[in-house]
Amino acid sequence: MARIIAVTNQKGGVGKTTTCVNLAASLAAMKRRVLLIDLDPQGNATTGSGLIKEQLETSVFDVLVGSHGVKEVMKVVMEDTPDPGKYWVLPANGDLTGAEVALLDLPSKETRLRAGLYEVDNDFDYILLDCPPALNMLTVNALAASQGVLIPVQCEYYALEGLTALLQTIEHITRALNPSLEIEGILRTMYDPRPSLTHDVSGQLQKHFGSKVYDTVIPRNIRLAEAPSYGLPVLHYEKQSRGAISYLALAGEFIRKTHS
Fold it and tell me: What residues does the AAA domain cover (predicted)?
């Protein structure tokens, strides 16, 4: 059965989509079967994986409302790359902006995604969910469907404040919808070791979360920033870059922790 991981933080700009796309590509390069689900109406994980939102005939919206199954909608990406590395994407487009309203009138509105994923549960090793930076019905569906939550955190002043709100949300979802949900890990992103604030926040994260904090950190890296404009994970854009090497290291640590 697939390990389903929601990648989320209610604070925007912390590297959720970057982490989803590049962790998916790195796990695929390690010959794991990966499905990346784009639950953000902006669709950045979709375009960052090389798909054109405007040309999609169906999207994750159709899965949520029950008009199509996951297998009908998901697309394979990076299939033509020379290295092992293809993965699958359940894409998003502008239709997803109407999901909040559409779901209100549907039965079991909080667990529509969980029900939709049953048909592919044995087809993948990992399913990664890229969540929007808000607590809405899309995020609730992601948390209700997942076994774990991976939380990207930028080591800055407001990081812990946003993290507190997210932990309260996870606790609520655990009680109300998904008792098996747990924190998969805390990932430090856009990491710059020079400011003392970085070390202070990093130290607080390690104090509060211990082994849940990944040893791997994701540095600020220009290649990571450039890769989405080419519709590529950084591994397929510049595999020798610090960003690519860091996400490969994260994938290795991620695999070890999920099997420990």
Answer: 3-183
Structure confidence at residue 260 (pLDDT): 67
> How would you label 117-141 residue by residue, b for 16+ Cβ within 10 Å and e otherwise?
beebeeebbbbbbbbbbebebbbbb
| Residue 250 structure tokens | 């994260």
Measure the CA dihedral 92/220/151/49, to 10°. 20
Q: How many residues does the chain have?
A: 260
Residues of the chain with pLDDT under 70: 82-83, 260
Going from the C-alpha of 251 to that of each of 105, 184, 186, 215, the distances in angstroms are 39, 13, 14, 12
Distance CA 44, CA 13 (A): 12
Q: Classify 36 as helix, strand or coil.
A: strand
> How far is residue 65's CA from residue 78's CA, in Å, rounded to a whole number?
28
Instruction: Identify the pLDDT of residue 164.
Output: 85
Query: Can you tell me the distance from the alpha carbon of 146 to that of 139, in angstroms, rounded to the nearest whole number?
Result: 11
- Helices of type H across the chain: 16-29, 44-48, 60-65, 70-73, 99-104, 112-117, 137-145, 159-176, 196-209, 222-226, 234-237, 242-258
Query: Which CA distances in Å does 217 have to 49, 183, 197, 238?
Result: 22, 17, 15, 18
Q: How far is CA 233 from CA 1, 122, 201, 203, in A?
A: 26, 25, 28, 30
CB atoms within 10 A of CB 208: 13
Identify which of 70, 5, 17, 6 has the alpha carbon closest to the alpha carbon of residue 42: 17
CA distance 46 to 54: 11
- The encoded tokens of residue 221 equal 């890296």
**What does the alpha-carbon distance between residue 149 and residue 140 come to, in Å, rounded to a whole number?**
12
- What pLDDT sits at residue 197? 84
